[in-house]
Design a protein that fits this description.
By secondary structure, the protein is α/β, with parallel strands linked by helices. Helix content is about 40%, strand content about 15%. The chain is built from 11 helices and 11 strands. The longest helix is centred in the last third of the chain and has 24 residues.
């Protein structure tokens, strides 16, 4: 019997597969528009690079994008969308660049809220308002099609702003007779005490965000005239009881601070030829402890009712300062951790 000796070679782990970087070159045919696309000191290109992890090199009218294939495709899609806006005579700035990048990411990730057949726009006298995230695109599509829409999500996602913009567009087009904007008069965790002045002066602080949105769509003079003529009405929720709101565009903002009875009262005011939009953030309820939120109740009861559309936003859709999205995300994680601890402790409270 013979014996053999085998030399054992160390086995190397397989080398990780590294995706080859990809390059694509875009050729823009208008030197006058290029500085607008690139931004001062190429700040728009720098944002694309930082957001997607690609490199952009410009030479004359040619722009070469290099990086992981999927990221290069996103950058190409975003820059082509921005170029199209410039060709249509629209201005672009940092907010528009952010929007194009969000939309490109949504398309690449097959976000179920995209693609729509046509990305919706809202036209007002102050210009065109386009979506800045996939959720905004889906929401704007619902606002154009459905008679009752719920916009649910954190602050900074544009829920109220887009609802007001759609209302102004319909009013200017003569498709509704008036806009009614309402909010519950609930303080954000504070006790403001006695407020001086007449009724309007007492409730205006609660309704100021709605005035701010209107002033972005119309001149201050137009807002004042239309309020005086009754074409725009801004009122606290308590003023809605007993009314039938016909041929109106009605918005209930901060609906998480309504009681179940209040939101039912508002929803049943809907009359012939009217539309309603209800916006709110279920995580920011300012009602007294143990008082259930009317928004959560309505979503549970009406979630499957035909003719009602529900659009949900999350921290990815925050279009304010980038820190706002990260703040919302951090609070969400903290709330989830606290809830897990309660469940483990067996309290469930």
């Amino acid at each position: 019997m013979t014996s053999s000796t085998f030399a054992l070679r160390p086995v190397r782990p397989p080398s990780p597969v590294v995706a080859e970087p990809r390059s694509v070159t875009l050729n823009f045919d208008d030197n006058a528009r290029l500085p607008l696309l690139y931004g001062d000191y190429n700040r728009h290109l720098v944002k694309v690079e930082q957001w997607l992890g690609v490199r952009c090199a410009d030479r004359g009218t040619r722009l070469t994008i290099t990086g992981p294939a999927e990221r290069v495709d996103m950058a190409e899609s975003a820059l082509q969308a921005l170029w199209k806006q410039l060709e249509l005579g629209q201005k672009i700035g940092g907010a528009e660049v952010d929007a194009a990048l969000r939309m490109a990411e949504g398309e690449a990730e097959n976000d179920p809220r995209l693609p729509l057949q046509d990305i919706p726009q809202i036209r007002t006298r102050k210009g065109v308002i386009a979506p800045r995230s996939p959720a905004q695109a889906a929401y704007m599509d619902m606002l154009a099609r459905a008679d009752m829409v719920f916009g649910i999500g954190p602050a900074g996602t544009g829920k109220t702003y887009l609802a007001v913009a759609q209302g102004v567009a319909l009013l200017l087009a003569g498709r509704v007779d008036r806009i009614i904007l309402s909010r519950p008069a609930v303080e954000a965790g504070e006790r403001l005490g006695f407020l001086p002045g007449d009724m309007k002066e007492k409730v205006d602080p609660y309704l100021r965000p709605l005035y701010d949105a209107l002033n972005d769509m119309l001149s201050a003079e137009q807002v004042a005239k239309r309020i005086e003529r009754g074409e725009i009405e801004i009122a606290p929720l308590a003023f809605m009881r007993g009314r039938t709101l016909a041929h109106s565009y009605c918005i209930l903002d901060e609906a998480q601070n309504t009681t179940p009875a209040q939101i039912k009262m508002f929803l049943t005011r809907m009359g012939e030829g009217s539309r309603m939009v209800i916006t709110g953030d279920p995580t920011q309820v300012d009602l007294p402890p143990h008082q259930p939120s009317g928004l959560a109740d309505a979503l549970h009861i009406l979630g499957k009712v035909e003719g009602i559309a529900i659009s949900r936003f999350d921290e990815r859709d925050v279009v304010r300062h980038p820190l706002v999205g990260r703040i919302v995300s951090a609070y969400g994680r903290a709330d989830a951790a606290r809830q897990r601890k309660k469940d483990q402790d067996g309290t469930g409270k």
